[in-house]
Amino acid sequence: MDASGSLDPFVEVRVGNYKGITKHFEKKQNPEWNEVFAFSRDRMQSSVLEVVVKDKDLVKDDFVGLVRFDLNDIPTRVPPDSPLAPEWYKLEGKKGDKTKGELMLAVWMGTQADEAFSDAWHSDAAAPIDSAVINAHIRSKVYHAPRLWYLRLNIIEAQDIIIPDKTRFPDVYVKVQLGNQFLRTKAVQARTFNLLWNEDHMLVAAEPFEDHLILSVEDRVGPNKDETIGRVIIPLQSIEKRVDDRVLYGRWFNLEKPLIVDVDQLKKDKFSSRIHLRVCLEGGYHVLDESTHYSSDLRPTAKQLWKPSIGLLELGVLSVEGLHPMKTRDGKGTSDTYCVAKYGQKWVRTRTIINSLSPKYNEQYTWEVYDPSTVLTVGVFDNCQLGEKGGNSNGNKDVKIGKVRIRLSTLETGGCTHTLTHFWSCTLRGLRRWASSTLPYASRPHH
Known about the structure:
The chain is mainly beta. Helix content is 3%, strand content 47%. β4 and β5 form a beta hairpin. The longest helix has 7 residues, at 132-138. It starts with 8 loop residues before the first strand and ends with a strand. Mean pLDDT is 83; it is low at 389-394 and 422-436.
């Protein structure tokens, strides 16, 4: 506390050797944090929970007051029970005497089904370095992959092609780019100013269609030397979507002259080259972005063609046992692991459990099921983003420990399967068993 009496308050939540810390406020006597802390019961080494209010200081943080709770007296709350209402608690001094100030909080024994679980700070996922960058790498997350469309492109012909060198027949091809996808047509030697290719090509476009389809007409003037005759840039958002077998009509697109041109030659030649294309986004197909043997989704791209879902897949990621150490910390072998599960367009990632060869996650996820002939994939990774300096400054990639695939057609409908699943990893010396994971999963039909 400074001379004016103002505080830079923050809160420490302590159970034994585990400690969670809120953000701090500058010069604020009535702060609001709205942060949640979760401590694993399996690792509790104390019977007392302490919530300590402190004043941030450059040299040593000052004690303001605390609230103590006996863990045996804390109520249990399991959904669908209503959340516990927060209450005001008088702050105590270090000797147990009442001090000025109150702290509003709610404390309860909960489960992974709790609404606050996914957003909470977790004691078993506490990073060795307290950093906002690190915390972003260890929290549980849900990702939704963008919908993919096939882009059908029929390059038909080009007209009124103009080249500077009139003494030779041009050797012309079309180069196509969409994002990081590249392709080209065969080269056609032009004895006239009109060229014919009539080639069909397929590319993949992703929503929300921020990329452009770029076609460049090139003249091969020599070995490893091409000159651009003209090009056209087509925004994906302007391309027609097709979900049936209706006839697709061609369109003419004007070719733009390259930026570096001969001004005198441009005055002589009226540049009117154009290219004839059929192009559309095909919504009637499923884009194969997975192995056909282990596909998790077989639906066409267009939502209007989807059939109703046939059930709900529930996955509980409980624990992993028998992990091999993936790194050394404080002279001991350890791992910082998380699980990733993928089904359809939805990816889920559990929080990272720090310093454990037998991590327990206790996280639950659900997916809509449209086809029983699909596969759920679950993988275990070692988090390599928790270095001394934090972040991914060295470009470290997380290490894949192993994965397991579960065919939905093998699950019991309406029941729950609780199994110990072995993870296998393929190495140069063959298969090696890395760990075992406990995964309950269920398939529930819609009525």
